[in-house]
Amino acid sequence: MNSYICHKYKVVKVFNNNVLLVDENNMEKILFRKGIGFGKKTGDIINSGEKIEKIFTIEDKTNYDNFKQLINYADKEIIALSEEVIVMISNELSEELDEKIHISLTDHILFALKRLENNEEIENPFLSETEILYKTEFDIAKKATIIIEKATKIKIPDGEVGFIALHIHSARNNGKLSNTIKYNFVCNSVVEFLEEEMDIEIDKRSLDYARFVTHIRFAIERFLNNKPIKNELISAIKKQYKSSYKIARKSAKIIEEQLYIDMTEDEIAYLAMHIERLKQSSCNGCN
User: Fold this and answer.
1) Among candidates 125, 128, 151, 130, which has minimal Cα distance to 19?
2) What is the set of domains in the chain, with CATH numbers?
3) 35 — alpha (psi -120 to 50), left (phi > 0) or beta?
C-alpha cells in the first residue's frame, strides 16, 4: 500500500526505476515504488508528498558500513532486484524485517547468481528440514526465486530456495537464525544415521518424515525451555518396538553429544515410535 513522503530526500544512488538510495539529514534510506527512479540522477531532490510504497532505513553503524561496501562492489541491478525481493517478503509477512537482510540476502543473491552462471550449484543438506520447519518462509522464498528467475533468466535450484528461506527466517528473528541451524544439523545427522543403521532410504517428502523432524525440533525446545513431558507408554514401546527402541537410544546419543543435553526415557520412547513408523514406511520387508 502506498504512503506519502513527509520530507525532502536527496538522491544518492539510482539502482533502477523502482529503487533509490536517498539522504535525509545525513540519514540514508532506501525508497521503493514502481517508477520512482525513472529519469532520476544523483543529486536530484524528491519532494514531500510523493507516493512511496516502502522506506527502509539502516540505522546500525556496522550494518550501514557493510551495506555501503556492498553497493560499492555489487551490480546495482542485483541490489535493486534484491530490494524488490525484500519488499515482497515484507509485504507477504506484513512485518518489519531486521535491517541485516539488506546486506545478508543481497550478498547471498549476488554470489548465488555468480555460482549458477558458472554452473557451480551448492548442495543444501538441510532443504527438507527447512521446508518442514519453516513452511511460511519457504513458501515466500519460492516466490522470491520466481522474481529472481524472471529478472535474470537464470534457473534457481531448490537448494537456493532453502537458503533464502533461512535468510527470511533470520530477518523475522532480529537477524538471528534462532535454533534453525541447530535443528537442521541435528535432524540431518540423525536421519543419516537411521538410513545407514536400518539400511533404508527415508522419503524426505513423507508425512512420517515430517512428523519425525517436527518431533526432534520440539523435543529440543522442550529441553531448552525445561518443559519435560511424560510418556505413559514407555514399557509397552520397549516391548513392542524393541529394535526401534534400541535405535532410538543410539539416535538420542547423537542428539545428546551435539547439543550437550540428556534425553529422557520419555523422549526416547516417543522417538522410538517415530522411528518405527519410518522403518515401516521406508523398508518393505526389512527387519
Assistant:
1) 151
2) 1-57 (2.30.24.10), 61-178 (1.10.1790.10), 188-282 (1.10.1790.10)
3) left
Model confidence over 161-180: pLDDT tens digits? 999 998 999 898 776 666 66
Other Cβ atoms less than 10 A from the Cβ of 2: the count is 10
- What is the maximum alpha-carbon separation in the chain? 77
- 237-270 as b/e: b if 16+ CB within 10 A: bbeebeebbebbeebbebbeeebeeebbebbbbb
pLDDT at 191 over 60: yes
Please give the model's pTM, rounded to 2 decimal places: 0.70
Class of residue 105 by CB neighbours under 10 A (exposed 0-12, middle 13-18, buried 19+): buried
CA 265, distance to chain mean position in Å, is 32
Residue 260 CA to residue 66 CA, distance in Å, equals 35
Q: Tens of pLDDT along 29-41?
A: 999 988 999 999 9
pLDDT, average across residues 55-82: 90
Query: Please, what is the average pLDDT of the chain?
Result: 87
Helices (H), the chain: 61-73, 76-93, 101-117, 127-133, 135-152, 158-171, 180-198, 207-224, 234-240, 242-259, 265-282
Distance CA 38, CA 152 (A): 20
- Of residues 216 and 178, more confidence is placed in 216
Give the separation between CA 43 and CA 32, rounded to whole angstroms.
17
pLDDT value at position 88? 96
The one-character DSSP state at 108 is: H
